[in-house]
Design a protein that fits this description.
CATH class of the largest domain: Alpha Beta
CATH topology of the largest domain: Rossmann fold
Helix content: 40-55%
Distance between the termini: 61 Å
Shape: globular
Strand order of the largest sheet: 2-1-4-5-6-3-7
Strand content: 5-15%
Number of domains: 3
Radius of gyration: 26 Å
């Protein structure tokens, strides 16, 4: 096919498969390599083209991200021009002499939820206008490239996708109904484009604070929510991180700080204060900060700090400084250690998911014995007991 007429999708010509390689066996070798690496199936010309349009940036996908989902009428028409050129491939009409290129089954299929949904939707449309609409809606909902593929990211001079992110859901977390309600309400408002607050989840260790945040991303992924986890030393990079996320305005990002606390001598908390509220540059409207901590006041305070003999002249100013950070989180969600009954119910629910039901007395004796010999009563201890029980069966 002659693809020289492409405009906004012109980068496809850099791909050797579509850019004019004459040898059919070379094309076959490249397509099969891509199929095995990416988990592509069916007509490989079609599957690989859709993969490129979904993952490689082009003017359409970039514009939609930067403008919060908006695209001009003329740019849409230019995209339609390109899709009409690519139509025979997208319809699966381009077939190879080697028959296995036309109905290929890879060793392991692609597990990317957004990409597989796009493949299924395109199977139902034939007209160029409908295909344009399908791609535009895909870009609006999922984005392109790593933003579409991954739910969570880490920071290393740019956002880097986390391939093996936990699949935990809110329904997997037993108890804490009020805490879930608060988190769901705030996050639903956020992904809907309504005002929402930065969140501090504080309380006893092992109670599911971190799991709650991770589960939100799994629940709201298809609505455009993504997570970027950063470490305490990376707080100084917050302006750069914010500016990077500002480029993806059709998505919503939670910047996640896990197990956060500061010693009095650490100054990184000032970067966080400035990012939440009070900096010269405003926080992007598509970014919120969710943090977990075992401390209600994130900056460590000692009794000496409260002493009248404290050497600082204006002692109240010092105390205000230590509590002002946590006060900047608009929503503070408290997690308390479970009661004995709640702890046993967590164990019961975890075992039930594995098809195991213990008698009440056996559950009580074994669960409480495990609690006393370990780090107390919480969800983490319950999970450790279940792992031990399953491992000994």
């Amino acid at each position: 096919m002659n693809l020289q007429g492409l405009i906004v999708c012109r980068d496809l010509l850099k791909e050797e498969i579509f850019g004019g390689i004459a040898d059919r066996f070379e094309i076959a070798a490249r397509l099969i390599e891509k199929a095995e690496m990416l988990g592509l199936s069916g007509n490989l010309y079609r599957a690989y083209l859709i993969y490129l349009l979904a993952h490689e940036p082009n003017l359409i996908s970039i514009s939609i991200e930067m403008r919060g989902g908006k695209i001009g009428k003329d740019l849409r028409e230019v995209f339609k021009h390109d899709i009409e050129i690519l139509l025979p491939i997208l319809r699966g009409e381009l077939v190879g002499e080697l028959k296995f290129l036309n109905n290929y089954e890879p060793s392991v299929k692609n597990g990317d939820e957004s990409f597989n949904e796009l493949i299924r939707r395109l199977e139902k449309v034939r007209d160029a206008t409908e295909i344009v609409y399908t791609f535009i809606e895909h870009y609006r909902r999922y984005g392109y490239g790593d933003i579409a593929t991954y739910r969570a990211f880490r920071w290393d001079k740019n956002i880097i996708g986390i391939r093996h992110f936990e699949t935990i859901k809110l329904s997997d977390l037993i108890g804490y109904a009020h805490q879930k309600e608060l988190l769901i309400g705030n996050t639903t408002a956020f992904v809907s484009g309504k005002p929402a607050n930065n969140v501090l989840l504080v309380g006893a260790r092992g109670t599911g604070k971190s799991s709650s945040v991770k589960s939100l991303v799994n629940e709201y992924y298809s609505q455009g929510l993504r997570l970027v986890q950063i470490t305490k030393p990376q707080l100084k990079n917050l302006p750069e991180i914010m500016e990077t996320l500002r480029k993806f305005m059709s998505k919503r990002f939670i910047i996640f700080l896990d197990d956060l606390s500061f010693e009095e001598s650490e100054s990184e908390y000032k970067y966080l204060k400035s990012a939440i509220e009070g900096g010269v540059e405003s926080r992007p409207e598509n970014v919120l900060i969710y943090a977990t901590s075992n401390r209600r006041h994130l900056i460590r305070e000692t009794w000496r700090d409260r002493s009248e003999e404290h050497e600082e002249l204006y002692r109240d100013d010092s105390l205000n400084e230590t509590i002002s950070l946590s006060d900047r989180f608009g929503l503070i969600v408290h997690y308390y250690a479970p009661t004995q009954a709640e702890y046993l119910e967590i164990i019961r629910s975890m075992l039930k998911k594995q098809g195991i039901e213990l008698e009440d007395e056996d559950l009580r004796l074994e669960g409480l014995h495990w609690e006393m010999s370990h780090s107390g009563r919480n969800g983490r201890t319950a999970q450790q007991f279940v792992n031990h029980y399953l491992g000994q069966r």
